[in-house]
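Customer escalation, tier 2.

The customer says the design service returned an amino acid string that "doesn't look like it belongs to this structure." They asked us to rerun it and document both sides in this ticket. The original structure tokens are below, unchanged.
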């Protein structure tokens, strides 16, 4: 069973902004998961 997540555009941009600020993927996923 494959799980492939499609994020809304809004979320995608949040992630991009956070990456620019130097957040790690794990931190981002934790923030978005809450």
């Amino acid at each position: 069973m494959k799980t492939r997540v499609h994020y809304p555009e809004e979320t995608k941009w949040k992630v991009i902004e956070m990456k620019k600020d130097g957040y790690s993927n794990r931190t981002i996923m934790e923030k978005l998961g809450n």
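Tier 2 assessment: The sequence is consistent with the input. Residues 9-34 form one domain. The chain has a mean pLDDT of 82. Sent an explanation to the customer and offered a walkthrough call.
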